[in-house]
C-alpha cells in the first residue's frame, strides 16, 4: 500500500531463476553489446528475429516480439520505516541510508536480467521513473548500472493520499474511522486525494502506450524483444499488476511489492499496438 504501511496486504512473490546458458556474443536492440551471454530470444545482428511462440495466442503471426516491463519499487525512506502514508502530494521524502543501499542492489538486479538471471528475457535498455524524489534517486542508481538516462513519467507516481499524507493508519482511523479500509477496498478516494482505481487507470495507460511504441518500432524493421524498467511505488505497482491480471480493484491490496523489489510483466502486442495478452512473471521479488 503506502510506504511500508499495511505490510499484511500480502507477501513478496518469489521467482525461479533460469539457469545460465552460454551464448555467443550478440548485440541487442539498438546496438548494445551483450558480451558473451544474451537472452535466448535475442537474435544475432546478422539474422532476422525468430518468432517467439506464445502458448495461448490464437494468431501468433499477428504479434510482435515480447515487451518486458520490470516494475521496480523505490528503496525505503524515513516515512517507510515509520509506517506513515507517503504519497504523491509532496515531492519527498528522499531515500534513507538503507534505501540507497537497496537502490544499488535493485540496480544490480535489473542489470543482471538476461545476463545472470532470467536468461530468456531481454536486457533492460530504457528507464522510466515517477517524479518523486525517492523514485528519481532509485532510478538514478539503476540508470548508472544499465547505462540509460532516466525519463520522468508522472503517471506512475504514487497515489495522492490527500489529507492522509504523513499519517499512520491508527491516526487515520482516529480521524476518519473506517475510511482507510473502504479506500483499500477501492470503494472511495482518499480525502482530497485519489482512489486506487484512479491510480490503476493512469498507470496502466503507460503500459498501453509502451506497447504501442514497441509495436511501432517492431513494424519499422526492428522486431526484437525489448526490456523497460519503471521505477515506481507500492500502490502504483500493485495497481498496474492488478489491471494486467484483470483483478477487481478491491483485491489489488492483496498484492505486496516490498521496498526495492521487482515485479515483471511481459506484454505481447499485436502489430497495430494493441495488447493481445500479458503474463505476470513475478511479483515483489526482494533484493537480498
Automatic annotation (TrEMBL):
Residue ranges that the Swiss-Prot or TrEMBL entry lists as coiled coil: none
The protein's name in its UniProt record: Histidine phosphatase family protein
Leading EC class: hydrolase
Organism from which the protein derives: Demequina litoralis
MF (Gene Ontology): hydrolase activity
Location of region: Disordered: 1-60, 80-99
InterPro entries tied to this protein: His_Pase_superF_clade-1, His_PPase_superfam, PGM_Phosphatase
EC nos: 3.1.3.-
Amino acid at each position: 500500500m503506502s510506504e511500508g504501511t499495511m505490510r499484511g496486504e500480502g507477501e513478496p512473490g518469489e521467482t525461479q531463476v533460469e539457469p545460465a546458458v552460454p551464448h555467443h556474443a550478440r548485440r541487442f536492440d539498438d546496438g548494445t553489446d551483450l558480451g558473451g551471454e544474451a537472452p535466448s530470444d535475442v537474435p544475432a545482428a546478422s539474422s532476422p528475429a525468430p518468432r517467439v511462440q506464445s502458448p495461448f495466442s490464437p494468431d501468433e503471426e499477428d504479434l510482435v516480439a515480447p515487451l518486458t516491463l520490470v516494475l521496480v519499487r523505490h528503496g525505503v525512506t524515513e516515512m517507510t520505516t515509520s509506517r506513515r502514508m507517503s504519497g504523491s502530494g509532496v515531492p519527498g521524502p528522499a531515500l534513507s541510508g538503507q534505501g540507497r543501499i537497496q537502490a544499488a542492489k535493485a540496480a544490480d538486479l535489473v542489470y543482471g536480467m538476461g545476463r545472470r538471471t532470467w536468461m530468456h528475457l531481454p536486457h533492460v535498455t530504457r528507464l522510466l521513473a515517477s517524479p518523486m524524489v525517492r523514485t528519481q534517486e532509485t532510478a538514478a542508481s539503476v540508470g548508472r548500472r544499465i547505462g540509460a538516462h532516466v525519463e520522468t513519467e508522472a503517471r506512475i507516481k504514487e497515489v495522492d493520499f490527500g489529507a492522509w499524507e504523513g499519517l499512520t493508519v491508527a491516526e487515520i482511523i482516529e480521524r476518519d474511522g473506517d475510511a482507510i479500509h473502504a479506500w483499500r477496498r477501492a470503494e472511495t478516494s482518499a480525502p482530497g486525494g485519489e482512489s486506487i482505481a484512479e491510480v490503476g487507470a493512469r498507470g496502466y495507460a503507460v503500459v498501453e502506450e509502451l506497447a504501442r511504441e514497441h509495436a511501432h518500432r517492431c513494424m519499422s524493421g526492428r522486431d526484437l524483444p525489448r526490456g523497460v524498467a519503471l521505477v515506481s511505488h507500492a500502490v502504483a505497482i500493485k495497481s498496474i499488476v492488478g489491471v494486467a491480471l484483470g483483478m477487481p480493484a478491491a483485491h489489488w491490496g492483496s498484492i505486496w511489492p516490498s521496498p526495492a523489489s521487482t515485479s515483471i510483466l511481459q506484454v505481447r502486442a499485436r502489430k497495430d499496438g494493441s495488447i493481445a495478452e500479458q503474463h505476470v512473471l513475478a511479483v515483489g521479488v526482494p533484493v537480498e
